[in-house]
Amino acid sequence: MTSALELISAIKQRGGRLTVEGDRLVIEPADAGLPFMESLKIHKPEIIAVLKSEPHDYTEDLRAPFVQWVDSSCVSGERFAGNLRPMLVDFCEWLAARNVQPCPFELFAGLARELGCIVGETPTGEILALGLALNSDLDGIPELLGKESR
Length: 150
Description:
The protein is of the alpha+beta class. The protein has helices at 4-13, 37-53, 59-73, 84-96, 105-114; strands at 17-21, 24-28, 74-83, 118-121, 127-134.
């Protein structure tokens, strides 16, 4: 291996993920980097520079908190549809209470899709998530909260 990009690619192909923590290069799972330890030591500064220049994909960082938020703040099921923008505001407030950075809209929509929601725009410009709604949107309508809800 002769370049940082080749090393990064090889580790990703082995199911590994590289991150930078201070001046340390972290590989998870650690065994993904074992065959490349000598090259990693030689190219560590170059690899860190490449990783710091790449935009961070926060999807993985927010996936588990998103599921926790859905479990605590939402109902799911075929008969529910919620406006994505108020849900995003609620999620960002939930994140802020846990000292986590806010979630961008496109990432939030992607997380909803991963959950199985159909996300689409109405003729009036609202963006809905079919299959998900805020609990607070259903306050006072207990008959809607049946076995489909979380």
